[in-house]
Amino acid sequence: MLPPSRERHGRSHSRPPSPVPRPPLTFPVRRYSYLTTDVFTSRRFGGNPLAVLPDARGLTTEEMHAITREFNYSESTFILPPDDPRHTRRVRIFTPGGEVPFAGHPTVGSALVLAATGAIPLDADETRIVFEEGVGPVPVTIRRVGGVPSFAELSVAKLPEVLPPAPSAEQLAPMLSLGADDMLGGSFHPQAVTCGLPFTFVPVRSRDAVRRARLRLDLWESTLAPTAASMVMVFAMDAEDPAHQVRARMFAPGESVPEDPATGSACAALGGYLGMRSATAGGTLRWIVEQGYEMGRPSLLHVACDKSGGAITAVRVGGEAVLVCEGTITV
């Protein structure tokens, strides 16, 4: 401590030095508006978060990927003018692992964000639009209630396609930290299906088995990572709510998504998986899928599958979304 005289009359009362002036920043700064929304839920902080840049003109692919990694949601979307003037918008979809040609919650969420902000006008209770995505044109129907957009439903651009045989239930059970008795058999066997994005589906006996699933990365790397359908959805026809039909979880470590709270592209392919096994030859099959409950982000995905003459003719996935925040990101 300084002597009393120094404390009263010394440096403790001197003025601080003037700051050294710094040269102005010379690099170009670009600012982009964004909004975030929780998709497949009507409540904030449920569902699957999504970041949407409603006008992404001028961004490079590398910048879009960097922004996606900055948000670190399972997906972000970048909205551009359409290549075909008959379509509504071009939508580029990125996971932290890279760009994907199609995804459900980004499609549904982007449609509802653009409608909620007035970028897509709603002149009727149902408005049909078309997004250009990597998989092709994706039709989307936006529904409003009391003048407010409340629900969006996509129709897949690519009908369900079965991929080469998936690993056996005996291989997949330990990968999911489950026992052989948790697996279903017969026609409900593991299968890889795609509607533009491939998934391996693993049906199990109960909601409890879905809850207990834990992906072992070492076994995933040797079992599924080398295949065309490395993303895996485990599901049971055993929902928590009697009004729902399916409980599911989806793991995609190859896309830097350890677990996804709500996966529209997987549920579209799941509609194909279930539709192929239904004895119904014609009409519309419907399921409500519970996902994200084990993550504390409950989500509800409405899946519909149209059949005619025993063949699947259309698959649709829809749900609600709620705006959470908006801001500006500097590039």
Could you describe the 3D structure shown?
- The radius of gyration is 24 Å and the shape is globular.
- Helices cover 19% and strands 37% of the residues.
- It contains 7 helices and 18 strands.
- Helix 3 (104-116) crosses helix 7 and helix 4 (169-175) packs antiparallel against helix 6.
- The model is unreliable at 1-12 (pLDDT under 50).
- By secondary structure, the chain is an alpha+beta fold.
- The N and C termini lie far apart (49 Å).
- The protein has an 18-stranded mixed sheet that branches.
- It folds into 2 domains: 31-155 and 322-330, Diaminopimelate Epimerase, Chain A, domain 1 (Roll); 161-318, Diaminopimelate Epimerase, Chain A, domain 1 (Roll).
Which features characterize this protein?
Diaminopimelate Epimerase, Chain A, domain 1; 18-stranded mixed beta sheet; 2 domains; globular; 331 residues; alpha+beta
